[in-house]
Amino acid sequence: MDQFGSTLAFCFIDKMLHRVLMFNLGDGAIFLKKDHQYSLISPPRNFGVNVSCLTTTEEAYKYTQVKIISAWVDVSFFICSDGFHHLLKGHKYSEAIQNAMLQNDYPLICKLIDRIEIEDDCSFILNTLEPISTLEATCE
Predict the structure, then answer these.
(1) What's the distance, CA 4 to chain centroid?
(2) Structural domain boundaries of the chain?
(3) Could you report the per-residue pLDDT of 7-52, keeping only the tens digit for each?
(4) Is 110 exposed, middle or buried (0-12, 13-18, 19+ CB in 10 A)?
(5) Cα-Cα-Cα-Cα dihedral of 131, 68, 22, 16, to 10°?
(6) Are the C-beta atoms of residues 106 and 76 closer than 8 Å to each other?
(7) Which of 3, 6, 18, 86 has the fewest CB atoms lying closer than 10 Å?
(8) Between β-strands 37-42 and 29-34, what pairing exists: parallel, antiparallel or unpaired?
(9) pLDDT of residue 133
(10) Residue percentage of the chain with pLDDT more than 90
(11) Phi and psi at residue 26, to the nearest 5°
């Protein structure tokens, strides 16, 4: 029987307490954008080649990442799949994708991704604090 895996990552924005709870279980990643720079704040878990991420097993709790930070304006959270994360370094279009992320040019990101033969899913979500909005894109 094949083993299946899944990933779960989210940012819960508490406007009343001015905090953000970040949760990551699996091989996704969460980035924080502040002052026109992205920082990796919740890295993807690497479970090995051809190994499903462990979110469907009883051991999954060992790999859960939870962080709480104070919220402030002009901050964005970028959540992405491992397929997207792999494109950010060492790839022909890595620099162009990173520049498009910084400019919030998500149609350009999708155009760049469409030029690449991808074996994994490549999805991302952007959450911003002011104004509260969400942009979502999936490029397959």
Answers:
(1) 20
(2) 8-139
(3) 788 888 887 787 888 888 878 899 988 888 888 888 887 665 555 5
(4) middle
(5) -40
(6) no
(7) 3
(8) antiparallel
(9) 43
(10) 6
(11) 125, -150
Higher-pLDDT residue of 103 and 30 is 30
For the domain made up of 8-139, the CATH class stated in words is alpha beta
- Give me 92's structure tokens: 């022909």
Taking alpha carbons only, the member of 64, 59, 66 closest to residue 25 is 64
- Lookup: tokens for 108: 């350009």
- Calculate the CA dihedral of residues 128, 79, 85, 74 and round it to 10 degrees: 20
